[in-house]
Design brief:
1 helix, 3 strands, three-stranded antiparallel sheet, Dodecin subunit-like, about 20% helix, alpha+beta, elongated, about 70 residues
Length: about 70
């Protein structure tokens, strides 16, 4: 029997970096979704306040294998 996976999009933010936002998103998704096999960054954006970067946001496409 083959494997079936699902892809879902999530958004995560960090005040530190894009890398930290990715880590936050994957760690949070792992609390709810089982069998996560990969994630790819679909979009990145920064929030700007008073001319400086105040936050980093990523939209991730998270792939997880469905249970039999």
């Amino acid at each position: 029997m083959g494997t079936v996976a699902r892809v879902t999009e999530i958004s995560a933010k960090s005040s530190k970096s894009f890398e930290d936002a990715i880590k936050v998103g994957v760690e949070r998704a792992s609390q709810t979704l089982r069998n996560i096999t990969s994630a790819w960054v679909k979009e990145q954006r920064v929030e700007i306040s008073d001319g400086a970067i105040s936050g980093y946001q990523v939209n991730l496409m998270v792939t997880f294998v469905l249970d039999d």
